[in-house]
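#lab-general

N.A. 3:47 PM
ok so I finally got the sequence cleaned up, no stray characters, all 871 residues accounted for. can someone with queue access submit it? mine expired

B.Y. 3:52 PM
send it over

N.A. 3:53 PM
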Amino acid sequence: MAEHPTFGEWLRKRRRAMDLSQRQLAALAGCAEITLRRIEAGSLKPSRELAALLLEKLGVPPEERGQWVRFARGMSEHPSEKRSAAELPARTNLPTALTAFVGRERELADIEHLLSLHRLVSLTGVGGIGKTRLAAKAGERLLRDYPDGVWLIELAAASTDLVARSIAAVLGLQSFNSSAASITQMVINSLRTKQALLILDNCEHLVSASADIARLVLSRCSAVRILTTSREPLGIDNEITYAVPPLELPSRSGAPAEVQSSDSTRLFLERARLRNNRIAANNADLSFAVQICHRLEGIPLALELAAAQSDWISLAEIAAQLEKSFEILSEANRAVPVRQQSLRASLEWSWGLLTDQERVLMRRLAVFFGSWTLEAAQKVCSDERVTAQAANLHLRTLVRKSLVRVIQRPEHETRYAFHEIIYHYTREKLVASGEFDRLAQRHLDAVLEFVRVTEDKLHSAEEKHLIEQLTDDLPNIRAVLEYSLTHDPESVLRLAAGLGWFWFRSGLFHEGRQWLDRAVTTHQRAFAQQNPLPPEQAGTLQKALYAGGLLAHYQGDYVAARTLAQDSLTIAQTLGDPCGIANSLCLIADGLMWQEGNLDSALEHILEGIDLLRESGTKWELASALSEMGFVLLAQRKHREARTVLEEGLQLARAAGDRWIICVCLSNLGSLSVQVGDLEQGYRLLEESLAIAEDVRDVINTSWAMKELAQVSMQLGDHERASELYRAVLEECRMTGIATGEADALRALGQLALGTGDYAAAEGLLRNSLKIYGHTEERGIAVCLLSFCELAKLRGDFALAVVLLGVVDQQVARITLSPLEKTQFERLKQACQVEAHGDEFTTLWNKGRQVRLSLVQQALLASNPQQLIDP
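B.Y. 4:20 PM
back already:
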């Protein structure tokens, strides 16, 4: 690769090419000749201001000066080494702008400089000042400086407890978590070794929550920097606040060239010419442009709103309208700051230019949160005053007038949204109109209908697409849930229950349980005097209890899951609802299997449920029950019965198009094939399951399939592949906060280390695994102790190995070991019996059976296992 010149060398060459002496260039830049001589010699770096002046005088284009200033200051490589944004790998979610970015060169240089010195920079200013666009542009220019990406986190539609979840979503982390704290930890784990820039956009309504997450990320992720946009600083240590100024205003008496060079004039004229290419650069138009820019105080959003009108009225008329509207507004509302008056005046004026029907639609659209679709706008906002067809036309007009923005993504339905300041303005209009409650109820009805229609389809081939749609609508879903909690207790229960599978499949376990708990409590309080409930309400309550139990089970809260499942079963039995009874029985069976290890009782419950589903259930419900039955039979090593049941379940799931259940059946069939010795078939089925799980973004089944594939790889002797898979499981579980999965992966990696003779590494991995299992995951603890037993045997400490076997033996009565784990247990027992003869083996074995599990954990975590032998 060719070696690039230093800045001093480049400066000398450029100066000479332009036939300038050092004295001449120094005079142009306003610096001493000796200063320029030292810069060219490389003994002095220019200040940021001097570098910018030199670059200007040497003809470097404005859009390139920022990176050249950084080069001159020794903060970046030669600009020719930098790849264009198009050449960079995809390591950002920054949106592609539909219009050119105008001006702001000084601000961009300031931000780049501040971020080179400080790790937290907050862009502050009034709404509409251009904070978001400026932050995004700065991030785009800094892409090359952050190998792990520049990530924009939009917080406008988030609530206080969802800041960390919003960051997790942007980073591609699925939030299978039980609390905000665990999601925060997941984000920190993801960023701990990364060199990345996070742009937290629109923090003003979440200052405290944003400050908390920023403080944690900065304290624990040493190479991460944060750029925020907010109307007020976060107020934490080491935060650098940068007040975003209005765009530079033109001179009222300047020459045409000077007027056109100001940022505010450039922005206004460029946007206006997009609407009307007949706008000229004559003195008259420039004069009105200057008037408009000053009247709007150089605020970008206001300038764009004004420019949007140029396709039907002249610049003179725009200027005249602004004069009239602003004077009235200023007199009517002097309590707000001047800039807010000006921005509000622009909005009032834009509002005044709308027809009556356009105003009605625009204010009604403020009932939505986040964004909306055309269909939703027609359903919620249309009536005899604004028909659905008219709503379609008026929405298009609002988009054209820059009052509504369009959100388009590949394979997603087009959505619409207000800019934040316009949303607040139109929301005020909606409340003042007296229509809010009626619109909020229609919004609730529309979301309820959508959830009702999609509920069963979530178990079909449409699942992936529908989950994406529901995810896009989450801000609206949360809004109507919150509204119905205080206005419609029956509807809030229907909505929360109808979203049960969505909460589960989206990994929103914690949030889903919160909404379900609040909905059930609200409903029970409202209808406390109504006993019994009408059948329809009782059925909805049963669904809500079942959904809450399902989420609790996957959170590992088995006690709550059992209670909710039992309550669900009681209601279903009272109603004579066979599907409700069957689903509740299967959920109870899950608890019996995973919490108690009671396979026989679990199987009895599932069989009872299957009998009901064969008569009355849907294909996916029966397929789900069969997959659970197959798993229990597999654990009982009843291979022939398990295969029959799982193949039937797979056939039904494929007929229904339910890819989640297809994935589960394939995974169980793969495990079955492995158990009977057909490793090749097992590997193929597990890989097929893994591909589906990854496609439908199912972290639990992805991790499960990878874990099973790793076990097959170990049996095939491919320890390298097994290690690779287990490390992938470990990373996946760490990123998503699945603690039990993380502990399982650590134990498996410890077992692999034992096979390679790296006992020290194995002990560290096993200790970390045991620590994560804690005092609640009895099965995990028992399996981990088997690996500690293996370690003791390999080190020749057979006394410790026998004691640990005794500990595991006392646990086996309450848990279920897999076939491989049972084989490991028996193999270790036989080996220890050879080394520890007769009474010695029995004494040590009984000692293990009698010792408290907590004492065993304490001894192993403290690296003092001998106290188990000689207390």
